[in-house]
Amino acid sequence: MRFFKEFNGFLFEFNSLGEYLRFLLGRLLGTIIGIAVLFGMLYLLYWYGNTH
Predict the structure, then answer these.
(1) pLDDT the model gives residue 20
(2) What's the CA gap between 29 and 22, in Å, rounded?
(3) Which residues of 12-41 are buried (b: 16+ CB within 10 A; e: fewer)?
(4) Do the Cβ atoms of 5 and 20 come closer than 8 Å?
(5) Where are the extended beta strands (E) located within 2-47?
(6) What's the CA angle centered on 31, arms 18 and 28, to 5 degrees?
(7) Which of 1, 25, 34, 48 suits 19 as a labelling partner, its CA being 20 to 30 A distant?
(8) Where in the chain does DSSP place strands (E)?
(9) Which CA distances in Å does 10 have to 4, 17, 40?
(10) What pTM, to 2 d.p., does this model score?
(11) In this predicted model, what pLDDT tens digit does every residue of 6-49 receive, in sequence order?
């Protein structure tokens, strides 16, 4: 079973439902890690600004 899904203008092809779910999990983990890194950088800037 092959199907297609569009994300942000890009067309992705999946061979199975498991491959699609693994793709979604990767996007979710990537988003969570990206947000954590962003907040970590903001916290470091806040800490640096208050100590100097």
Answers:
(1) 87
(2) 10
(3) eebeeeeeeeeeeeeeeeeeeeeeeeeeee
(4) yes
(5) 3-7, 10-14
(6) 20
(7) 34
(8) 3-7, 10-14
(9) 10, 19, 30
(10) 0.68
(11) 877 888 888 888 888 998 999 999 999 999 999 999 999 999 99
